[in-house]
Design a protein that fits this description.
Length: 280
């Protein structure tokens, strides 16, 4: 892996209250998406376990393992992005033992990640410390943590009560103390996200967490209109690329059926002796 232009210390220092502009992170799962996202100037490419839903057709993120994430991380790394590559540690890759977690994090680094992301609060602090002790930077993820969807009873906004908000703040402080360089806050009320952002020295990156965080992350397919489900309330669709793709392919089908494709200019012609032998 070549050293990216955007490094973990740069991200760690990027608090808005210290004058930094809001950070941007977008998911990427392969070389073309990584190249296109990187060209837009984001600071971080997330090889998310959302690859399970967005690319592989699963209903949740519980159906991908470290090998799948390493495969997609390696593809993203071939784009040699300027942005920092953050790869998700999938469900069950850091839940069984600390040793397994460190080895799985190392697998993602060897595939091309510059940092890993994992979900959970104080209950994951020991695992975060162990990965950080192995010199692998860790981004946290709190709030609506999709890997907990069975325990949460679905994909539901979190931290909606005073107690739950206080617990989330305590979790955020705990994973910061464990060594996280940033934390994703997903699906929580804006005031709770603001409180966490104010309380931490590391940057918060929101998704469905309002405008007060230190940065924002969106999923590539949601942002571009490539998803096959109605987008969540927090998604802004910046394009309808799905419609553009279907229109282009419909035009191809029509041209093939009408004989308009391929044209003469799109054809390799036989020349010389070969041509003559066919004509004779
Ligand atoms: O996997 C993913 O895409 C994520 C984002 C929703 C932050 O974790």
């Amino acid at each position: 892996m070549s050293t990216p232009a955007i490094t973990v210390p740069m991200i760690r220092a990027a608090k808005r209250r210290h004058g930094h502009h809001p950070l941007t992170m977008v998911t990427a799962y392969d070389e073309p998406s990584a190249r296109l996202v990187d060209a837009a100037g984001v600071e971080m490419l997330l090889v998310g376990d959302s690859v399970a839903n967005t690319v592989l057709g699963h209903a949740d993120t519980l159906h991908v393992d470290t090998a799948v994430l390493a495969h997609h991380t390696a593809a993203v790394a071939t784009a040699h992005p300027h942005a920092l590559i953050v790869a998700d540690l999938p469900w069950m890759s850091y839940h069984v033992s600390t040793e397994e977690a460190v080895r799985n994090a190392a697998t993602l680094v060897r595939a091309g990640a510059g940092a890993v992301k994992l979900e959970g609060g104080a209950n994951r602090a020991a695992v975060i410390s162990a990965i950080v002790a192995a010199e692998i930077p860790v981004c946290g993820h709190l709030g609506l943590t999709p890997q907990s969807m069975l325990a949460m009873g679905g994909f539901k906004v979190q931290a909606k009560t005073l107690d739950a908000a206080a617990q989330l703040l305590a979790d955020a402080k705990s994973i910061e103390a464990a060594g996280c360089f940033a934390v994703v806050l997903e699906g929580i009320p804006d005031l709770v996200a603001q409180q966490v952002t104010d309380a931490l020295e590391i940057p918060t990156i929101g998704i469905g967490a309002g405008a007060g965080t230190d940065g924002q992350v969106l999923v590539f397919h949601d942002l571009l209109g490539l998803g096959n489900r109605p987008p969540a309330k927090f998604v802004r669709r910046y394009a309808d690329v799905g419609a553009v793709i279907t229109e282009a392919i419909t035009n191809f089908v029509g041209d093939v059926r009408s004989g308009a494709f391929p044209s003469d200019a799109e054809t390799y012609h036989a020349t010389g002796e070969l041509k003559a032998s066919f004509e004779g």
